[in-house]
From TrEMBL:
It comes from the Eukaryota. Belongs to the peptidase S1 family. Keywords: Disulfide bond, Signal. Residues 1-23 form the signal peptide. This is Peptidase S1 domain-containing protein. GO terms for biological process: proteolysis. InterPro entries: Peptidase_S1, Peptidase_S1_PA, Peptidase_S1_PA_chymotrypsin, Peptidase_S1A, Trypsin_dom. The keyword Transmembrane helix does not apply. GO terms for molecular function: serine-type endopeptidase activity. It comes from Aspergillus bombycis. It holds the Pfam family Trypsin. Residues 24-233 form the Peptidase S1 domain.
Length: 233
């Protein structure tokens, strides 16, 4: 089946990926009702607010993203924008009250790359990553791309020399070579045709010339389903 990426939101098994800023390369703008669970993770500092990655709203007060996205960030410095197709405007900003990283997160292999963020209050139910690897600007509107899952063996053959794919990951490939995830798409949802979250965008190929042509690698939420359930409020 094919998955869809909505960089910065939940997605499906003919997978679709979606993302807000340094967004999906070669994708298209998402419609308002295509990925309402996708959120933008915002870093708030003295200098202002900056979009850093995407996430998926898995309960009214819980967001699932990658540990790498929020590494080095305190809960007080993070906000979540929900209910908007744009990462910088609209919807509602919610303060993060707690950051919980998966205990097995490995910064070298990217295994266990999950983080749960708790919000101040319940929210009502997309990604924003670069649409061009050479661009300094991120799209303001959520992007999406339909991709196809590939086998773990085929994926590992293409990544083993750099970063072996573990049993806690899955891989998807875009129909065209110059399509796929890009900077700041991490944490976004990959969903199947049934609307089930089947991946959290991890590392990618097209934005890294040295790995051009390799499939995108996602974190498989089923590998951490018990931990995710225990930390969802």
């Amino acid at each position: 089946m094919k998955p869809t990426k909505a960089l910065g939101r939940l997605l499906f098994f003919t997978s679709i990926i979606a993302s807000p800023v340094n967004a999906i390369v070669g994708g298209s703008e998402a419609s308002p009702d295509s990925a309402p669970f996708t959120v933008a993770v915002i870093s708030s500092t003295f200098f202002g607010d900056t979009y850093i990655c995407a996430g998926s709203l898995i309960s009214p007060k819980t967001v699932l993203t990658t540990a790498g996205c929020v590494s080095g960030s305190s809960a007080s410095s993070l906000k979540i924008r929900v209910g908007s197709l744009e990462h910088a405007t609209g919807g509602k900003l919610n303060q993060v009250t707690k950051v919980i990283k998966h205990p097995n997160y490995n910064t070298n292999t990217q295994d266990g790359d999950f983080a749960v963020l708790h919000l101040t209050g319940p929210v009502t139910l997309y990604g924003w990553g670069k649409t061009d690897k050479l661009s300094d600007k991120n799209p303001r509107t959520l992007q999406q791309l339909q991709t196809t899952f590939i086998s773990a063996d085929d994926c590992n053959k293409l990544w083993s020399d750099i970063n072996p794919v573990t049993l806690n990951m899955n891989c998807d490939a875009a129909p065209e070579k110059e399509q796929g995830s890009c900077s700041q798409d991490q944490g976004g949802p990959v969903v199947n045709e049934s609307g089930e979250l089947v991946g959290i965008i991890g590392y990618y190929n097209y934005c890294q010339p040295s790995s051009n042509g390799r499939p995108d690698v996602n974190n498989d939420p089923l590998s951490a389903d018990d931990w995710i359930a225990q930390n969802t409020i």
